[in-house]
C-alpha cells in the first residue's frame, strides 16, 4: 500500500511530518512546484513527483490541494478503486465523487497544522457505505499526527473547520496581539515574544494538567479589584467573547458558501 498526497503545501507537509516521525508508511507527494518537492524529499522519508501515477485498490490518495484547484487537479486521475481521503474545506463527498467519475470510497478529514508536531486534532467523517477497515486505515493515518474525532454528520466538517481547522490561526492572532502589546509597554521584540509564548505555554499546560474548567482558571488569576480584572473588564466592554463567536460563525459560513460555489 502506498499513500499519495495530491498537493504538497502547508497542510500536506504537516501531515507528512507527523506520519514520517512515526514511520512505516510508503509516502509519495505530488506537487507542481519543484521547490516544495525538494523541500519535502530532503526533510522527510517521502518520494516526490510532479504527476500522480495510476493507483490501485490498495492505495490511499490524500486530496490536499486548495478547494478551488480540486476539480482541475483531479481530472483524469486513475483511481482503480483506491481509498480517497479529502482534507479540503468546502467540498462535499457528493461534489468530490462527481469530480472523480462517481468514485464512492471517500472519507473527509479536517486536520490542523499542529499535526506537524504530532499535536494536531482532526475531525473525520465517513458516509455509511465506507467499511470499518477503511475507517480504521484513515484513523490510524491521522493518529500519527495527533488526536482524532469521528463526526456523525458531514455538515460537522464545516463546523469543526471553524473551531480546530482554522483555530491555530486564532491562537497565533492572539499571541501576536499580546506580543505587540508587550512591545508597546517597552519590551524588546525578543522579550515580547518570550513573554507571550511563555504565558500561552504555561496557561495551556496548566489547563491540561489541572483538568480545571477554563472559567475557574481565569478566576484563579483574577484578584478582586486587581490588575487582571482591569484587563478582562476591557475585554468584556469590547465583547471579545462575542467577537470570537462571530469569527467562528464567519468561518463556518464561508465553508458552507464554498460548498455551494464549488459544487458542479
Ligand atoms: N492550511 C491549513 O491549516 C488547513 C488546510 N486544509 C485544507 O488543505 C488543503 C490544502 O491547503 P494548504 O496546504 O493550506 O494549501 P497550499 O496552497 O499550501 O498547498 C497546496 C499545494 O498543492 C499544489 N497544487 C495545486 N494544484 C496542483 C496540481 N494539480 N498538481 C500538483 N500540485 C498542485 C499547490 O501549488 P501552487 O502553490 O502552485 O498553487 C500547493 O503547493 C485545502 O483544501 C484546505 O482547505 C484543511 C485544514 C487545515
Ligand atoms: O483557511 C482555510 O480555508 C483552511 C481550512 C481550515 C484551515 N485552513
Automatic annotation (TrEMBL):
Ranges where the Pyrroline-5-carboxylate reductase dimerisation domain occurs: 154-258
This enzyme's EC code(s): 1.5.1.2
Coiled coil region boundaries: none
Residue stretches making up the Pyrroline-5-carboxylate reductase catalytic N-terminal domain: 3-90
Catalytic activity field: L-proline + NAD(+) = (S)-1-pyrroline-5-carboxylate + NADH + 2 H(+); L-proline + NADP(+) = (S)-1-pyrroline-5-carboxylate + NADPH + 2 H(+)
InterPro entries: 6-PGluconate_DH-like_C_sf (IPR008927), NAD(P)-bd_dom_sf (IPR036291), P5C_Rdtase_cat_N (IPR028939), P5CR_dimer (IPR029036), Pyrroline-COOH_reductase (IPR000304)
Superkingdom of the source species: Bacteria
Pathway the protein contributes to: Amino-acid biosynthesis; L-proline biosynthesis; L-proline from L-glutamate 5-semialdehyde: step 1/1
HAMAP family, per the entry: P5C_reductase
Name of the molecule in the record: Pyrroline-5-carboxylate reductase
Source species: Snodgrassella alvi
Gene from which the chain derives: proC
Amino acid at each position: 500500500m502506498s499513500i499519495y498526497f495530491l498537493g504538497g503545501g502547508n497542510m500536506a507537509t504537516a501531515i507528512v511530518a507527523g506520519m514520517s516521525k512515526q514511520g512505516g508508511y510508503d509516502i509519495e507527494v505530488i506537487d507542481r512546484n519543484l521547490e516544495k518537492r525538494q523541500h519535502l524529499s530532503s526533510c522527510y522519508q517521502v518520494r516526490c513527483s510532479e504527476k500522480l501515477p495510476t493507483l490501485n485498490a490498495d492505495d490511499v490518495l490524500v486530496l490536499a490541494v486548495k478547494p478551488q484547484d480540486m476539480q482541475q487537479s483531479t481530472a483524469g486521475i486513475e483511481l482503480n478503486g483506491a481509498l480517497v481521503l479529502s482534507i479540503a474545506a468546502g467540498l462535499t463527498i457528493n461534489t468530490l465523487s462527481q469530480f472523480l467519475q462517481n468514485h464512492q470510497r471517500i472519507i473527509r478529514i479536517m486536520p490542523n497544522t499542529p499535526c506537524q508536531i504530532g499535536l494536531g486534532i482532526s475531525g473525520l467523517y465517513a458516509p455509511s457505505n465506507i467499511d470499518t477497515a477503511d475507517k480504521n486505515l484513515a484513523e490510524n493515518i491521522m493518529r500519527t499526527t495527533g488526536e482524532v474525532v469521528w463526526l456523525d454528520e458531514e455538515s460537522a466538517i464545516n463546523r469543526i473547520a471553524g473551531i480546530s481547522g482554522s483555530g491555530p490561526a486564532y491562537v497565533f492572532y492572539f499571541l501576536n496581539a499580546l506580543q505587540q502589546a508587550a512591545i508597546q509597554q517597552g519590551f524588546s521584540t525578543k522579550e515580547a515574544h518570550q513573554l507571550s509564548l511563555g504565558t500561552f505555554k504555561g496557561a495551556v499546560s496548566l489547563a491540561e494538567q489541572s483538568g480545571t474548567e477554563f472559567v475557574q482558571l481565569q478566576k484563579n488569576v483574577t484578584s478582586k479589584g486587581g490588575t487582571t480584572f482591569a484587563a478582562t473588564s476591557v475585554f468584556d466592554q469590547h465583547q471579545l467573547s462575542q467577537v470570537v463567536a462571530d469569527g467562528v460563525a464567519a468561518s463556518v459560513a464561508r465553508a458552507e458558501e464554498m460548498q455551494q460555489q464549488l459544487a458542479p
